[in-house]
Design brief:
Elements (H helix, E strand, L loop, with lengths): L14 E4 L2 E4 L6 H14 L9 H18 L3 E8 L2 H8 L1 H18 L5 E6 L2 E7 L3 H17 L3 E2 L2 E2 L4 E7 L6 H17 L5 E2 L5
Parallel strand pairs: 8-9
Antiparallel strand pairs: 1-2, 3-5, 3-8, 4-5, 6-7
Length: 206
């Protein structure tokens, strides 16, 4: 609050300057804290699907890759793409397509673990960051999500359509960058599509 200080207890509303950065301490159910939390949510969330947006994905993947490499922790990434989404839009219209995206977002949010970071990567493609998860566990989670998506009901205004996803999964290597991890998961995604869609690549062990 404009005075030099050492170790001390902070009170609600105290401001702390470190270098050129100013932090403000908010505690409890402070309305200003709730306001900032809501602003962050709006800036980081895709409004249609309820998932995080691409900007949040980029930030979180970079942070989690750095953390995993520093501490030798496992990290996996799953890339999901809706099969034949153009056919859905062409057959039933873009409003129905939006309903499919929204329903799929809800399905994946329910099927994923609390610590997993689910993001809309772009269009009908999504990404799921899986912290503390090696490849075998990531494939198990991806297969569970694939099954939930395929079993869900997608309907609007008297129309319905079966929906499935192809999923590619990759795990972080010791020297890999976030970009390399995305490329590896993307390569597996296209492998799943070439293999007939509605599947996970590599194939999970039974």
């Amino acid at each position: 609050n404009g005075e030099r200080t050492g170790a001390r207890l902070l009170s609600d509303g105290d401001q702390l300057r470190i270098g050129r950065t100013i932090f403000k301490f908010l505690s409890g159910d402070h309305i200003e804290r709730a306001y900032h939390d809501e602003i962050f949510r709006l800036m980081s969330t895709d409004s249609l699907t309820g998932s995080f947006n691409r900007q949040h994905f980029d930030r979180e993947l970079e942070r989690l890759v750095a953390h995993s490499q520093r501490y030798g922790r496992a990290l996996s990434l799953a890339m999901l793409d809706i099969d034949h989404f153009k056919v859905i839009n062409d057959s039933h219209g873009h409003v129905f397509g939006d309903r499919v995206l929204a329903t799929l977002g809800s399905v994946v949010q329910t099927a994923k673990r609390a610590q997993d970071v689910f993001c809309r990567y772009g269009g009908e493609e999504f990404a799921l960051i899986l912290p503390e998860t090696a490849l075998a566990g990531a494939l198990h989670i991806a297969e569970r999500i694939r099954g939930h998506v395929a079993a869900a009901t997608y309907e609007f205004d008297g129309k319905s359509h079966a929906v499935s996803v192809s999923i590619g999964v990759a795990s972080l290597g010791a020297e890999e960058s976030p970009e390399a991890l995305i490329e590896a998961a993307d390569a597996r995604l296209y492998e799943a599509k070439r293999g007939g869609r509605n599947r996970v690549a590599p194939t999970p062990a039974t």
